[in-house]
Design a protein that fits this description.
The chain has 148 residues and is mainly β. The protein is built from one helix and ten strands. The protein has a five-stranded mixed β-barrel with strand order 6-7-8-10-9. A three-stranded antiparallel β-sheet has the order 4-3-5. A two-stranded antiparallel sheet has the order 1-2.
């Protein structure tokens, strides 16, 4: 059974005695998380200038409009940077795993898990496509970027 978490309301994340991570609410990302639940990668688009924006944006940095709409991203992009984690912060995560920043075709940069099904090493500039899978022991589904 897949766990469902409403990430838009925030979620405390603990490493040992320390609370870090998604502890604050983020109502401006509700459309993003609703898309994740449907298996769609949603980003924002400015009605004023047409620029695509990160899901957390509340106004356009290009034209300062706050007339933003949720649109479905192609989900395709390239690896901008990455780092492989060999020692997980808790046993909830199976190490090694690779996190990185992806530049989407729409020009938006998003952070997430990078996966390569054939075991090849991931490199900057590799083409990727979004997928959705459980990335922790609890089974909640999050976007991952699969090397094409």
């Amino acid at each position: 059974m897949t766990a469902r978490i409403d990430w838009s309301e925030g979620l405390p994340f603990k490493i040992g005695p320390y609370e870090v991570g998604l502890t604050e609410t983020a109502p401006e990302t509700a459309g993003y998380w609703a898309g994740v639940e449907r298996g769609e990668l949603m980003i924002k688009r400015c009605a004023g200038c047409g620029r695509h924006l990160h899901p957390r944006r509340i106004f356009c940095p290009g034209c300062t409009s706050n007339d933003l709409a949720w649109v479905r991203s192609s989900g395709r992009g390239t690896v901008y940077t990455f780092s492989t984690v060999y020692r997980a912060p808790t046993e909830e995560f199976e190490a090694p795993y690779t996190n990185g920043i992806v530049e989407l075709e729409e020009g938006v940069f998003l952070y997430g898990r990078l996966v390569d099904g054939d075991g090849a090493e991931i490199a900057i500039g590799d083409p990727v496509e979004v997928d959705f899978e459980a990335v922790r022991a609890e089974g909640e589904v999050l976007p991952v970027y699969r090397v094409r």
